[in-house]
Specification:
Blueprint (H helix, E strand, L loop, with lengths): L1 E6 L3 H14 L2 E7 L2 H11 L3 E4 L8 H9 L6 E5 L4 H10 L3 E4 L9 H15 L29 E6 L3 H10 L9 E5 L6 H9 L5 E4 L10 E4 L5 E7 L2 E7 L12 H12 L3 E5 L8 H9 L3 E5 L8 H8 L5 E3 L1 H11 L2
Parallel strand pairs: 1-2, 1-3, 3-4, 4-5, 6-7, 6-12, 7-9, 8-9, 12-13, 13-14
Antiparallel strand pairs: 10-11
Helix pairs in contact: 2-3, 3-4, 4-7, 6-11, 8-9, 9-10
Length: about 350
């Protein structure tokens, strides 16, 4: 059983979260806290396997709770918040939270497939002790060459990320200079309604421009494009250039929509060997088949290493294809991108 503490000042929210977790049969609710100070005290005294944490609370907010707890404990924390505090929830991932969800996803109307996905993620997270060695967001030196870059034009970088992805992406993008010109397109597995907040939050951590990708939008230099939730994003060619294109009618792949495999495959088919792909931390296998396709088309394939990954599922799935050129620690990825695209 997973001993779980619920921290939320709303009794209704606590009831909803408790009922949701108990329905799975693997979560044991060992306590509830009604404000931030109560949360800190109970987290440190009860030593739970998992904490669900609200953001807006009296006495101390969620960010203050995380900061206080992480000084003394590495307990896994999942933020459960409202859409209007989404940007703060992303900030919580930099302070030590491992995942976050909107409160409305815990309602009885959530699909069985989505409920199973949440349960499995929480179970995996409950076994993770926060890695205090994951690099902070600061500039790093360019990594030493590990492979010799082939002389070619690089037209696009595509990235797949899931659980742990916001922090990983913020770290990478913060270490890319304003002079970095290669367009970057990202599939981050997000809950519906959080994509705009994610792009706005990520934009504050980089000198590059971060925005949601729009349909029929040409890829521009120095721009990072975030795929919208609930739509597959492909790259197609128009007038000799890459352009973003959304498909609404396609089914999820790897239980994801958008799917990194869809993005990766389309980039490889459209831009051939001028693609660099990166598979970052996350559960599942999204991005693995896309990595294989990019490799087959002559592109360069990178993946985050196990040591710096919060969850090594997606990078490992890519590795199992035998098509990953390099595994890199999180603090070396930006430097390697600069080296490969010089």
């Amino acid at each position: 059983m997973i001993n779980t503490l619920i921290v939320d000042d709303s009794s209704l929210s606590r009831d909803i979260i408790r009922d949701f977790l108990l329905e799975d049969g693997n979560f044991n609710i060992i306590g509830e806290a009604v404000d931030g100070e109560d949360g800190i005290n109970k987290i440190l005294s009860l030593n739970p396997d998992l904490v669900t944490l609200d953001i807006e609370m009296p006495k101390k907010n969620g960010l203050e709770v995380i900061e206080a707890v992480m000084k003394q404990s590495s307990v896994p924390i999942v933020v459960i918040t409202n859409h209007d505090t989404a940007k703060i929830a992303y900030e919580a991932t930099l302070k030590g939270a491992l995942e976050f969800y909107p409160k409305n996803i815990f309602s009885p109307s959530t699909s069985p497939e989505k409920r199973r996905d949440i349960y499995e993620t929480l179970k995996r997270i409950s076994g993770i002790k926060t890695r205090k060695t994951i690099p902070a967001i600061e500039l790093v030196q360019v990594s030493k060459p590990s492979i010799q870059p082939v002389k070619r034009q690089v037209n696009i970088i595509v990235i797949a990320a899931s659980t742990g992805g916001p922090k990983a992406l913020a770290t990478i993008l913060s270490n890319l200079p304003a002079s970095f010109t290669i367009p970057i397109v990202i599939v981050q597995h997000n809950t519906s309604g959080f994509d705009k907040s994610f792009s706005q939050w990520l934009d504050t951590y980089t000198d590059l421009t971060v925005k949601l990708a729009e349909d029929a939008e040409f890829l521009q230099k120095g721009t990072v494009y975030i795929a919208k939730t609930d739509k597959h994003l492909e790259i197609i060619r128009k007038d000799g250039k890459g352009i973003c294109h959304y498909y609404n009618d396609k089914e999820p792949e790897n239980n994801q929509k958008p799917s990194a495999d869809v993005l990766f495959r389309s980039a490889a088919e459209c831009l051939n060997n001028s693609v660099i792909s990166i598979v970052l931390t996350g559960m599942g296998s999204d991005g693995a088949l896309g990595t294989k396709k990019i490799s087959e088309m002559g592109g360069i394939t990178l993946a985050q290493d196990e040591e710096s990954s919060l969850i090594f599922g997606m990078p490992k799935a890519a590795a199992d294809t035998g098509c990953v050129d390099m595994f890199l620690s999180l603090d070396k990825i930006a430097g390697e991108l600069m080296r490969l695209t010089q």
